[in-house]
Amino acid sequence: AIQMTQSPSSLSASVGDRVTITCRASQGIRNDLGWYQQKPGKAPKLLIYAASSLQSGVPSRFSGSGSGTDFTLTISSLQPEDFATYYCLQDYNYPQTFGQGTKLEIK
Amino acid sequence: EVQLVESGGGLVQPGGSLRLSCAASGFTFSSYAMSWVRQAPGKGLEWVSAISGSGGSTYYADSVKGRFTISRDNSKNTLYLQMNSLRAEDTAVYYCAKAIFGVVIIGAFDIWGQGTMVTVSS
């Protein structure tokens, strides 16, 4: 199975900050990667698919980049509603695998 | 409105069985691969199983292979997860999720259900 290594596991930031989360795959996965946001007690929400495509309805301050093994989720200017846990998920092959998650907290 | 609604969760003893259901609406159910994803209390997300739109192909995580069976009834727009030989480590919220694109057998998940809690305990 492909291992997805996500970093950092937690991050403290302030409203207005630029934040970057990374995900590294144990083998090349083309651009078959998505990013999800999860708030406590809620289902995950798709933010980015195909590494860099913004899901409909997601604010443009979210962006994704990368291909092959290294991927990045960037939030250009943090808003209060962005404090949540973020996960990457590879959809290159089965079994699909998630990163360990990054908890984004208010500084 | 595109929607997924899970049901069937509850408390079950170790070694017991449970069947989860996921009722879909608002899209052509048979055109999309579907998956189950779970989240143990306080832990991260874990992909569990997937099934193609036709139901002809199924996939499982090693942690559930041989114990769980995914299936779908396209005439009822419903996805299922039959869980047998349950263990304490299967305790989690179980989500069903829809692949973003039709036809393809794997993809990102654009629609998620609200989740159903499964607790395995004596």
Write structural notes for this entry.
The complex is a heterodimer of chains A (107) and B (122). Chain A is mostly beta strands and 107 residues long. Chain A has no helices and eleven strands. Chain A has strands at 4-7, 10-13, 19-25, 33-38, 45-49, 53-54, 62-67, 70-75, 85-90, 97-98, 102-106. In chain A, the strands form two sheets. In chain A, strands 2, 4, 5, 6, 9, 10 and 11 form a seven-stranded mixed sheet that branches. In chain A, strands 1-3-8-7 form a four-stranded antiparallel sheet, with no helix packed on it. In chain A, a hairpin with a 6-residue loop joins β9 and β10. Chain A is globular, with a radius of gyration of 13 Å. The model of chain A has no long low-confidence stretch (mean pLDDT 97). Chain B is mainly beta. The model of chain B has no long low-confidence stretch (mean pLDDT 97). Helices cover 0% and strands 50% of the residues of chain B. In chain B, strands 2, 4, 5, 6, 9, 10 and 11 form a seven-stranded mixed sheet that branches. Classes of the chains: A mainly beta (107), B mainly beta (122). The A-B interface holds A 1, 32, 34, 36, 38, 43-46, 49-50, 55, 87, 89, 91-101 and B 35, 37, 44-47, 50, 59-62, 95, 100, 106-110, 112-115.
Query: What would you call the shape of chain B?
Result: globular
> What is the straight-line distance between the termini of chain B?
40 Å
By oligomeric state, this entry counts as: heterodimer
Q: Tally the beta strands of chain A.
A: 11
pLDDT averaged over residues of chain A:
97
**Largest sheet of chain B at a glance?**
7 strands, mixed
Largest sheet of chain A: 7 strands, mixed
Number of helices of chain A: 0
Which outline of chain A best applies?
Answer: globular
Indicate the structural class of chain A: mainly beta
Q: How many helices of chain B in DSSP terms?
A: 0
